[in-house]
Amino acid sequence: MKIRIKDKVYEVEISDSGGERVKIKVGGKEFSFGEDKKEISVAKTVLPKRDFSKKEIKAPIAGIVSEIFVKEEDFIKKEQKTLVISAMKMENEIVSDFEGRIRKILVQKNQEVKEGDTLIVFQ
């Protein structure tokens, strides 16, 4: 199955290894736990650290850019709505993870994007 946490999608496999232990495979890494382990510690171990040294907004899903709320040279704040990607009859608002001035918007309205495509680059 796939799980989305914020703007990142993770491929997850859960299997019963028999007895009281359960195996969880996330992003190619396998974890095994039973009553002696806590799920929260597994989740903290699994989630990759995000690289904020490159200030850009990437498409979390594939779809069509249906609205753009910002323009180049705008200064935007963390959690500010930047654009909308329509996918599978749903509108997904894309917000910024940080604040800064927009250097370049790499997409246009009605443009198709793939998951992981860079949408906006900051200065």
Features:
2 domains; four-stranded antiparallel beta sheet; mainly beta; 49% strand; single chain; 123 residues
Domain module count: 2
Distance between the termini: 37 Å
Strand order of the largest sheet: 1-2-3-4
Provide the structure class.
Answer: mainly beta
Strand content: over 45%
Cα-based radius of gyration, to the nearest Å: 18 Å
Order of helix and strand elements from N to C terminus = EEEEHEEEEEEEE
Q: Provide the residue-averaged pLDDT.
A: 80
The CATH architecture of the largest domain comes to: Beta Barrel
CATH superfamily of the largest domain: RNA polymerase II/Efflux pump adaptor protein, barrel-sandwich hybrid domain
CATH topology of the largest domain: OB fold (Dihydrolipoamide Acetyltransferase, E2P)
- What is the CATH class designation of the largest domain? Mainly Beta
